[in-house]
Amino acid sequence: YGELTIKNELSGRDAVAILTRAGSNSPLIAVYIRAGDTFTVEGIEDGVYELYFSLGEDWDDQRMQFTRNVVRERFEEPLSFETSSAPGGVQYTAITVTLYPVPGGTAATESVSEEEFPDLRP
């Protein structure tokens, strides 16, 4: 039931967001989000995850990465998803993140080297 909404509305660059299990950099889900767009991932299983993202220009399908103006980051705090029964239905975690700084925002990110960033190539 878990939902993760990722906003790339103000960065001016396309983005790739990658969800991994906490402590791993093996991609579970990867989504491409064009500049100015928002994407919601639905059906995330209960657990603790890390969210990596890359912003850039000129996506290279062969290398599965941007080639210009590249930024690679990871949210410092893991994302925790939990589902439980509630009166009249189900209660689940829904998280919204932005890939740009917002006034009053509380989610810090840290730079990640190309070697630390999850590899999307099959």
Reported for the largest beta sheet, the result is: 6 strands, antiparallel
Pick out the low-confidence regions: none
| Assembly form of the protein | single chain
> Per DSSP, what share of the residues sits in E-state strands of 2 or more residues?
over 45%
**What characteristic shape results from the CA principal axes?**
globular
H-E order = EEEEEEEEEEE
Helix tally equals 0
Q: Given the helix and strand composition, which structural class is it? A: mainly beta
Walkthrough of the structure:
This protein is an all-beta fold. It is 0% helix and 61% strand. Strands 2, 3, 5, 6, 7 and 11 form a six-stranded antiparallel beta sheet that branches. A three-stranded mixed beta sheet has the order 4-1-10, with no helix packed on it. The mean pLDDT is 93.
Short characterization:
This protein has 122 residues and is mainly β.
SSE layout and pairing:
Elements: E1 2-8, E2 14-21, E3 27-33, E4 37-44, E5 47-60, E6 65-75, E7 79-81, E8 83-86, E9 89-92, E10 94-98, E11 109-111
Output the keywords.
122 residues; mainly beta; six-stranded antiparallel β-sheet; three-stranded mixed β-sheet; 0% helix; 61% strand
